[in-house]
Design brief:
95 residues, 1 helix, mainly alpha, single chain
């Protein structure tokens, strides 16, 4: 069995070490990216929740305004004038 020269053995060991270091660096980078994606996903979820709440509050406000306007129109009176005054058809006769 031929013996491998020490230089070849060292270069193989060095290549294996370099590959392991590269793999470790890639795994660390992937973990960092995954963590950042999780943070971004949580932020997106919070933003969607806020949008839903604001939309719901807006719908409630619009319905409230519609109800007030409907009430004012259906009550047949002008809120600025107060109670209506009835005017008789003919003036009372003196005398």
């Amino acid at each position: 069995m031929p013996a491998t020269p020490p230089e070849t053995s060292r270069s193989v060991d060095r290549a294996a070490i370099d590959q392991a270091a590269q793999r470790t660096a890639e795994q660390a980078a992937l973990r960092k990216v995954r963590k950042q994606l999780d943070v971004m996903g949580a932020s997106d979820a919070r933003q969607r929740r806020v949008i839903r709440i604001v939309a719901f509050a807006g719908i409630i406000a619009v319905l409230g305004v519609i109800a007030v306007v409907w009430y004012m129109l259906s009550s047949h009176r002008d809120p600025l004038r107060g109670t209506p005054v009835e005017i008789p058809r003919s003036a009372p006769k003196k005398g």
